[in-house]
């Protein structure tokens, strides 16, 4: 009898450990750090009052399939994740901006904490006339990504860089980076505020 109870308890312990490990792996995994994303600004303390994202900058994970699917309008920068809604708040247009050169080559960089099999990385930019005082919507973005980097299911390195030509833009804009995972239903989202 004692042996059966011990076996059951050990089994429950293994099951519990497996569930914790499985649910832990669903936690965040990567974010854009060049051009600096909103979550990076929060993690480094450049921007204050960011809530939980300051401790989990790699956790902006939401449904994939953007722009046809994915997070709802107004919740894109947080990946539709309510725990990180501070990333969707326009802050009166006061998010720090990275200075970029219109039409020039630029290297984007991501820090990858968990190296998922990857479908692609895509970069979208806001249309001319974008209002940084409002939460980001699909209507704010150009319909096609200006840079698409297919990965074919390969797992990325701990640091990933992509070089591409920036669109012809002027003034303040937002670049949305989307890291689409090949073997889950999710993607990671990163909003970077920029000025041309």
UniProtKB/TrEMBL annotation:
Keywords: Monooxygenase, Oxidoreductase, Signal
Pfam family, one: LPMO_10
Keyword Signal: yes
Domain Chitin-binding type-4: 29-194
Domain of life: Bacteria
CDD domains listed in its UniProt record: LPMO_AA10 (cd21177)
GO molecular function list: monooxygenase activity
Position of the signal peptide: 1-21
PANTHER family: CHITIN-BINDING TYPE-4 DOMAIN-CONTAINING PROTEIN, GLCNAC-BINDING PROTEIN A
Record's protein name: Lytic polysaccharide monooxygenase
């Amino acid at each position: 009898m004692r042996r059966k109870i011990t076996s059951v308890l050990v089994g429950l312990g293994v099951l519990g450990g497996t569930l914790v490990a499985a649910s832990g792996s669903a936690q965040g995994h990567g974010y854009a750090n060049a051009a600096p994303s909103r979550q990076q600004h929060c993690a480094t303390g450049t921007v204050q009052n960011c809530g939980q994202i300051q401790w989990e900058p790699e956790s902006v994970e939401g449904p994939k399939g953007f722009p046809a699917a994915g997070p709802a309008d107004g919740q894109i920068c947080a990946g539709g994740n309510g725990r990180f809604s501070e990333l969707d708040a326009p802050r009166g247009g006061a998010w720090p901006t990275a200075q970029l050169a219109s039409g020039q080559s630029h290297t984007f960089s991501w820090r990858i904490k968990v190296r998922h099999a990857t479908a692609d990385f895509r970069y979208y930019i806001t249309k001319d006339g974008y209002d940084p005082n409002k939460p980001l919507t699909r209507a704010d973005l150009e319909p096609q990504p200006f840079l698409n980097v297919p990965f074919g299911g390969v797992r990325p390195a701990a640091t990933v860089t992509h070089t591409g030509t920036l669109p012809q833009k002027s003034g303040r804009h937002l670049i949305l980076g989307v890291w689409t995972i090949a073997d889950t239903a999710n993607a990671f989202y990163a909003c970077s505020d920029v000025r041309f």
